[in-house]
From TrEMBL:
PANTHER family, A to Z: CARDIOLIPIN SYNTHASE (CMP-FORMING), CDP-DIACYLGLYCEROL--GLYCEROL-3-PHOSPHATE 3-PHOSPHATIDYLTRANSFERASE-RELATED
Subcellular location: Membrane
Main location: membrane
Superkingdom assignment: Eukaryota
An MF annotation (GO) of this entry: cardiolipin synthase (CMP-forming)
Name assigned to this protein: Cardiolipin synthase
Family: Belongs to the CDP-alcohol phosphatidyltransferase class-I family.
Biological process per Gene Ontology, one example term: cardiolipin biosynthetic process
C-alpha cells in the first residue's frame, strides 16, 4: 500500500513526498522500523530535487543502546557503595544488550547513522563510569585512567569538528544537534574495536575482582598484565583515527560529496 502526501508551496508549486510500506509479512515490528526520508524542494516546474537526507532514530536497537546508557548511574552507585555483586550483574546485562542491539540492527535492517554514533558512545560512557568508580575505589591505577580519558577527550573533540565540517549550510545549533539529519558516519577502526573490547574485559574482571579474590582466585598478576595491554591498545587506537579511515562524510542528495571516504 502506498501513501502519498502533497504539501502546497508558494505560487502553487508542490513538494511531493512518498512513503511506501510493504504489506508482506515482515520480522520487523512496525513501531520500530527505521525510515529514511528525502526532503525535496522545487527546482523547475513539475520537477523536484532532493536537498537533504533525514532518517528516523526511533528503532529498537537504538532503544537498547539508550537503555545501556541509562544503566550507567546505577552501575556507578553499586561500585561506590561496594556492592560488587549488583555491579557485576549490571555489567553482564549491559554486555548482553550490547550484543543484542547489534544483532537486531542487522537482522531487521535497522542500521542508522545515529545508531553508529550512540552505540560506541554507550560503550564509552560505560567504560568512563567504570574507570572513574574503580579508580575511586583504588582498584584501577590512576595513570591508566588518565590515559583512557585523554584519548577519549581528544576523539570527542575530533567528532565535534567532523560534525561541523560535514553539516550542510546553514550551520545552526538546531541543525547541528538534530539527530534526524546525518552528515557524517563514524566508522570505528579495527584496533579501536579491539581496544574497546579489551577495556571492557579489564573493567569487568576488575569489577568482579573482589568477589573472585574472596572466593580464592588470586588474579592480581593477570589484571596487571591486562592493564599494560590496554594501555598499549589505547594509544594505538587513538593514533588510528589520525587518517580518514575512521569516518565518512555522507553524500547529501542533490549535493556534491562533502569529503572523501
Amino acid at each position: 500500500m502506498s501513501v502519498t502526501v502533497f504539501l502546497r508551496a508558494p505560487r502553487g508549486a508542490r513538494v511531493l513526498g512518498s512513503l511506501a510500506r510493504s504489506t508482506a509479512v515482515s520480522a520487523r515490528p512496525p513501531l520500530f522500523s527505521a525510515a529514511v526520508q528525502r526532503i525535496t524542494a522545487p527546482t523547475k516546474p513539475g520537477k523536484t530535487e532532493p536537498t537533504e537526507l533525514h532518517e528516523s532514530p526511533y528503532t529498537l536497537p537504538n532503544a537498547l543502546t539508550v537503555a545501556r546508557i541509562a544503566a550507567c548511574p546505577f552501575l556507578a552507585y553499586a561500585i561506590v557503595k561496594g556492592d560488587f555483586q549488583i555491579a557485576t550483574g549490571i555489567l553482564v546485562a549491559s554486555g548482553l544488550t550490547d550484543w543484542l542491539d547489534g544483532y537486531l540492527a542487522r537482522k531487521w535492517n535497522q542500521k542508522t547513522v545515529i545508531g553508529s554514533i550512540i552505540d560506541p558512545m554507550a560503550d564509552k560512557m560505560l567504560v568512563t563510569t567504570l574507570v572513574v568508580c574503580l579508580t575511586y575505589k583504588g582498584l584501577l591505577p590512576l595513570p591508566l585512567a588518565v590515559l583512557i580519558f585523554g584519548r577519549d577527550f581528544a576523539l570527542s573533540m575530533w567528532a565535534f569538528y567532523l560534525r561541523y565540517k560535514s553539516l550542510p549550510p546553514p550551520r545552526t545549533l538546531k541543525r547541528y544537534f538534530d539527530p534526524t539529519m546525518p552528515s557524517a558516519e563514524v566508522q570505528p577502526t579495527q584496533i579501536s574495536k579491539i581496544n574497546t573490547a579489551l577495556q571492557l574485559v579489564l573493567m569487568a574482571f576488575t569489577t568482579a575482582s573482589p568477589l573472585l579474590v574472596s572466593a580464592g582466585y588470586p588474579i592480581g598478576a593477570y589484571l596487571e598484565g591486562l592493564q599494560w595491554i590496554v594501555a598499549g591498545t589505547t594509544i594505538w587506537s587513538g593514533l588510528s583515527y589520525v587518517g580518514a579511515s575512521g569516518y565518512k562524510f555522507l553524500k547529501q542528495p542533490g549535493k556534491k560529496r562533502l569529503g572523501k571516504k
